[in-house]
Amino acid sequence: MPFTPRILVAVLVVALIALPPVRIAHAQGAARLILADYMMWYRPDVFDGTKTFDVPAAGPYSSDDMATIQHHLQLAQRACLDGFAAHWFGAKEPRTTDNFNKLLAASEGSPFRHAVVLLENSLPRAREQDLRDSVRFVLDHWANHPNYLKMDGRPVIFFEGMTRPWGSVGAARAGWARIRQATDPQRQAVWFAEGLTTAFNPLFDGLYVYRIDHRNGPRSWLKQPAFAARLREVERQSGVKLYFADTVAPGFDDTRSSKVRATDVRVPAPAFARDRRNGAYYRETFSVTAQTGGDLLLVKSFNEWIEGTAIEPGSQYGELYLDLTCELATAYRSSPLALARPTEETKGQQP
Hints:
Order of helices and strands: HEHEHEHEEHEEHEEEHEHH
Largest sheet: 8 strands, parallel, barrel
Number of domains: 1
CATH topology: TIM Barrel
Shape: globular
Oligomer: single chain
Number of strands: 11
Structural class: alpha/beta
Distance between the termini: 44 Å
CATH superfamily: Glycosidases
Strand content: 5-15%
CATH architecture: Alpha-Beta Barrel
Number of helices: 9
């Protein structure tokens, strides 16, 4: 029987009722987290000088190399990061699974905490069952590791491409509700939805935006306070604790991305470049974070060389963006979460 809008709403409501709510109890003065997106699939040939906006200062590398992972953690410490949001293709994809295991192993004994960003639903022929299996894998194999990221004692998972593989928002909401009911019915993990809408909250516990600039929609980061305000309204109405992640980027340049399309699972978008302006662009994207009351800061990215957002030292700009990230991270942490929440007077204002 085909799903009608009324049936989809009913399915979602039933699923939400079955999920026990996590009531709002925001910590007073809690330090806010800073994570950087981390890519785990590079091979040395990517860094031949023709496929990326710049190349690593340390030279070409393989993401499989433990010494490279250890070096990246040293650089992350220099940048004052709490950890990585590691892009993962799911439990069926062995390479990024193995490399995340290496990342956790390399972090043992350190304060670093990492979470995965599940990209599996963007892959061709991805199925709902695949997503269930991957969420279970995180909860069964990684969630209890001391270096896996937790917020309020709950392991964190980031998701993206929210309507895939279902196609429409209504079908996707119903599909995600089934996945959560099957894998995390007691809401023991914090699930972050990606996108420009609260359509998946409060089924998902958080919201973040990956792309904060576009060729045809420049300066999109200015909209983040409005997204945060909408999330806080959902939080107020539902009584469920929700989290907002601020997103910043030092620049963009994906004009060469067509040369590495095999590793690019994004929805196709017009390529563009943004001049970093010696850090000025980075500061501009950071400037709106004081208006959001965000719970954590996502840096786009540690090493996304294909999209041109890397803070990893490059041959052109050296360690500038490690130092600038540390500066911004320190400023972000200096504003306690309880003080950063938008007030009733400002939370609904448009940027």
